[in-house]
Amino acid sequence: xxxxxxxxxxxxxxxxxxxxxxxxxxxxxxxxxxxxxxxxxxxxxxxxxxxxxxxxxxxxxxxxxxxxxxxxxxxxxxxxxxxxxxxxxxxxxxxxxxxxxxxxxxxxxxxxxxxxxxxxxxxxxxxxxxxxxxxxxxxxxxxxxxxxxxxxxxxxxxxxxxxxxxxxxxxxxxxxxxxxxxxxxxxxxxxxxxxxxxxxxxxxxxxxxxxxxxxxxxxxxxxxxxxxxxxxxxxxxxxxxxxxxxxxxxxxxxxxxxxxxxxxxxxxxxxxxxxxxxxxxxxxxxxxxxxxxxxxxxxxxxxx
Length: 304
Description:
Layout: E1 12-13, H1 14-21, H2 25-35, E2 41-42, E3 48-50, H3 52-66, H4 93-106, H5 110-123, H6 126-144, H7 151-174, E4 180-186, H8 194-204, E5 208-214, H9 219-229, E6 233-237, H10 244-256, E7 261-264, H11 267-270, H12 272-277, E8 281-284, H13 287-297
Parallel strand pairs: 4-5, 4-6, 6-7, 7-8
Antiparallel strand pairs: 1-3, 2-3
Helix pairs in contact: 4-5, 4-6, 6-7, 7-8, 9-10
């Protein structure tokens, strides 16, 4: 059927579908090849083209993965309205990836770490990998370092690997022009930036661009950078409870900004009321939920 016939459905190339759904092209091809989840149209040259129905199915798959359904189980779940996700067995893929990565960390084996992490990223959206694999792994390392010989070295090894990995992926995504750019920084006193970088990578896969300032950033500097870079919103991250002085600086930042100021991380859970009192919007820690809400939260003076 010709493309200009009235009954011809709109068709979208894989890059557009990736931007709309947050699922990278490598993962979309893996879902098609290994699991038969999607059957896109093909052009004469073999390029994949997707319908709106395909996009809706991909978004449903992402939702199911976010609830804990494994990629191997998802095909039987797609299309069931309000179906309860099947429980994953003890030997599910996430536990397997975590065991492989922990073993590689214990051996300081970067190629082994890279192989497991890259395999997970090839099959799952990055925000699902972050919630189901990376965050639990970071928690496990943080809980066991104190009573384990070499635990601090292991934690530093993984943090350095992850920071380099995230930095390289963010640099690659930064060359793509995004319609919405965010200024991202850690709150004053927060010296760990991995949570911020993981958020930025997941959001970048959903089409957002970033100016990243990193750890322990004075909020007056955040305000200046946002104005100069003309970012469309400000995202702050922290796990350390803010001092009264930081809360006052946050209030001043919100009062002087003409864009939304959003706060994520553990501090947004523990100090939600205090953050709302400054006029900033607490995001919490559930990455999948944050990404769904993000477009609605952004905009001039859109405050709590």
